[in-house]
Amino acid sequence: MSAWSWGEGEPWANAMSHALAEHYGRWSVGWRWAHDEGDFDGGPVGYWCCPRDSITTPQETLARVVAAL
Asked: Which of 24-49 are b and which e, b meaning 16 or more Cβ less than 10 Å from the residue's Cβ?
């Protein structure tokens, strides 16, 4: 699972950050700055943890991205 998270999950989350920044502007890059154990530890986001724990089905994952944004 850890290999998947870094090999596929992390690039997906990075691509999502890029797409959101292209559409909404640079402020949206912080959408996954989660508190506790997030990708960028120490932020205010509570709906996203990390690719390993946050990416599930397409519908549920996109709902988490929207909630985090």
From this structure: eeeebebbbbbeeebbeeebebeebb
